[in-house]
Amino acid sequence: MPGFEIFGDEERKEVQDVLDTGVLFRYGFDGVRKGHWKAKTFESELAKRVGAGYCHLCSSGTAALCIALAACGIGAGDEVVVPPFTFIATIEAVLSAGAIPVFSEIDETLCLDPESIESVVTSRTKAVMPVHMCGAMAHIDEIRSFCDQKGLVLLEDACQSLGATFNGKSLGTFGQAGCFSFDPVKTITCGEGGAVVTDDKEIYALADAYADHGHDHIGNDRGLEGHPILGTNYRISELNAAVGLAQLKKLDSILEKQRLNKTAIKDAVARFPEITFRDIPDPKGDSATFLSFFLPNESQAREAASSLGNAGVDSCFYWYANNWHYIRQWDHFKEFKSPARLSITLNEKVPEYEKIQLPKSDDIMSKNISMLIKLSWTEEELARRIEKITDVIKGIVNSK
Ligand SMILES: Cc1ncc(COP(=O)(O)O)c(C=O)c1O
After folding, report:
1. Which residues 6+ apart lie within 8 Å of 109 measured at CB?
2. What contacts 24+ positions apart, CB below 8 Å, involve 230-236?
3. According to the model, what pLDDT value does residue 303 have?
4. Cα 10 to ligand 1 centre (Å)
5. What atom in ligand 1 is closest to the CA of residue 194?
6. Residue from 58, 62, 85 to probe ligand 1 pocket by mutation (most atoms less than 8 Å from CB)
7. pLDDT tens across 41-88, in order?
8. I need a labelling partner for 43 at 20 to 30 A (CA). Which of 9, 159, 318, 390 fits?
9. Long-range contacts made by residues 12-15, C-beta under 8 angstroms, separation at least 24?
10. Predicted confidence (pLDDT) at residue 2 exceeds the cutoff of 70
11. pLDDT in tens, 297-355
12. Smallest Cα–Cα separation from 290: which of 326, 325, 266, 311?
């Protein structure tokens, strides 16, 4: 996820604009800012880019999720259906809202399985939160139909999937709200940043106010603004927004290069009939930040992960054994380890997360390897990488 690979004069110029005015705050100071509104401009550019009615830029993807949950009316005691393969931020945001994460299986898309959601829905379920992992999509049309049918809020965590589409429509725009991250290892970066997109004017107004202590942002005197709601501070600075604005202009060229690099590796790996690939419901809409594939079984996947590392093929993730992205190793979550008591513990019925069984997800994740696709590889580096990858896979499939 390569925004950081391509900093250049474009980012420097946008940041310099901000430094030249000295206005690092995204609101107000109209006179001295010399027309530079980096956060506001980013919001309108991103809304246009993803085809959303509204966008609110904030301090991180995690903040975006917290804002979106609040703005969609999800709070104390509400159940939110989430996948077990995600970054823990998705779960932390649900907990911060006072809501209860309820895990449902993933399928071969590596995202929430639409078929499995119904079995975990209860009368307390308020929302479904699919996470479009590693640059590509869930069966989002089916998940959306399910949510519509059941009257549930659909909130997409598209933090890892900026630029990806399903049937031409941007991920993050299928439900009531969608969230993006611009942290340092995302497709484009602000250094730190995030965004909520929505087509719903009311959700946008709530998000915009919630992220800034409930300010309604009406008028040009901050001290006289109304506060229709309580909120908090999830504001982004103009400096971060400036970096993101330059990066956003590079999104199309980033996607193009990623797709070329991914296709070259995928074509080479596809020569092995033993290897199958992640299901991507609309391959044309893949943002191509990762190549994810399956070995025939867990032991071969473990062997592939370690052999790829030993061969010097960097950034090949075996999520099943990694502390980051899969529920298996989230002991801190399962034990509610937190500096202070979490509000989830006040509920009469708290899921026993340490006993959770997700056999389908375990089976899928235990066979999966995800390889990061970079922009900065030279042709020689890419060719060498492909050679090493195919050598490793040949060794593994031939030895069985
Ligand atoms: C799926 C997912 N959701 C949320 C986040 C949180 O984004 P941030 O790091 O900007 O808070 C991330 C970041 O890695 C992520 O991968």
Report:
1. 136, 137, 138, 139, 278, 279, 280, 281
2. 231/70, 233/59, 234/58, 234/59, 234/60, 234/63, 234/64, 234/66, 234/67, 234/210, 235/26, 235/58, 235/59, 235/211, 236/26, 236/39, 236/57, 236/58, 236/59, 236/190, 236/192, 236/193, 236/194
3. 96
4. 25
5. 10
6. 62
7. 999 999 999 999 999 999 999 999 999 999 999 999 999 999 999 999
8. 9
9. 13/246, 14/38, 14/242, 14/243, 14/245, 14/246, 15/239, 15/242, 15/243
10. no
11. 999 999 999 999 999 999 999 999 988 899 999 999 999 999 999 999 999 889 999 99
12. 266
Residues 344 and 338: their CA atoms lie apart, in Å, by 12
For the chain, how many helices (H) and strands (E)? 13, 13
- What distance in Å separates the CA atoms of residue 153 and residue 206, rounded to the nearest whole number? 16
Residue 82 contacts residue 116 (beta carbons within 8 Å): no
**Residue 41, Cα to own-chain centre: how many angstroms?**
22
pTM of structure? 0.97
Instruction: Name residues whose C-beta falls within 8 Å of residue 378's C-beta, 6 or more positions apart in sequence.
Output: none
Q: State both tokens at 274.
A: 């033993």
Q: What is the pLDDT at residue 64?
A: 99
Question: Is the separation of the CB atoms in 170 and 52 below 8 Å?
Answer: yes
Using alpha carbons, list the distances in angstroms from residue 308 to 182, 273, 299, 312, 395. 29, 19, 14, 6, 11
- Reported residue count of the chain is 400
Four-CA torsion 209, 344, 322, 271, nearest 10 degrees:
-70
With tokens 């609040």, the residue in question is 70
Q: Percentage of residues in the chain with pLDDT exceeding 70?
A: 99
Ligand 1 centroid distance, CA of 185 (Å): 9
Residues 214-251 as b or e (16 or more Cβ within 10 Å = b): bbeeeeeeeeebeeeeebeebbbbbbbbbbbbbbbebb
Average pLDDT, stretch 244-258? 96
Show the beta-strand stretches assigned E in 59-209: 79-82, 100-103, 125-128, 153-157, 165-166, 169-170, 177-181, 194-198
pLDDT tens-digit series, residues 206-241:
999 999 999 999 998 999 999 999 999 999 999 999
